[in-house]
Amino acid sequence: MFKSISGVVVLFAVLGLVGCQSMSGKTAGETVSDASISTAVQSKLTADRVSNFTRVDVDTERGIVNLSGVVQSAEQKARASELARQVNGVKRVNNNLQVQDQPSKTGKLSQ
Predict the structure, then answer these.
(1) What's the pTM?
(2) DSSP letters of the chain?
(3) How far apart, in Å, are the Cα atoms of 29 and each of 20, 55, 83, 88?
(4) Distance between CA 49 and CA 28 in Å, rounded?
(5) From the CB of residue 31, how many other CB atoms can be counted at a distance below 10 Å?
(6) Which tens digit of pLDDT belongs to each residue from 49-93?
(7) 3.30.1340.30, 3.40.50.11270, 3.20.20.140, 3.40.30.10: which CATH number matches 26-99?
(8) How many Å apart are CA 38 and CA 59, to the nearest integer?
């Protein structure tokens, strides 16, 4: 009888551990870690006084940071990647930022 009770306890323990994973396949620890990475990257971008990263979105999945949005120049795009890579826990950065065309001094869009 003790054997069957201990078997049930082990079964519930295993089910409990499996239940800790969300539908995305990430554990609660990975979710918190990804959220903290996204927050840290966003804070680093916001704190950068040289560039204006107000139109950059950050999403992290298993340590891979995805940057999306619009920046003013290729230099800002590169700077955003550089800053994101400095955050602990970042494994890779996918930089999907778009460089916004700036009007030229004559008022026409640059091509």
Answers:
(1) 0.67
(2) -HHHHHHHHHHHHHHHHHHTB-TTS-BHHHHHHHHHHHHHHHHHHHH-SSS--TTEEEEEETTEEEEEEEESSHHHHHHHHHHHHTSTT--EEEEEEEEPPPB-TTSSBP-
(3) 9, 28, 24, 15
(4) 34
(5) 15
(6) 888 788 899 999 999 999 999 999 999 999 999 999 999 999 999
(7) 3.30.1340.30
(8) 6
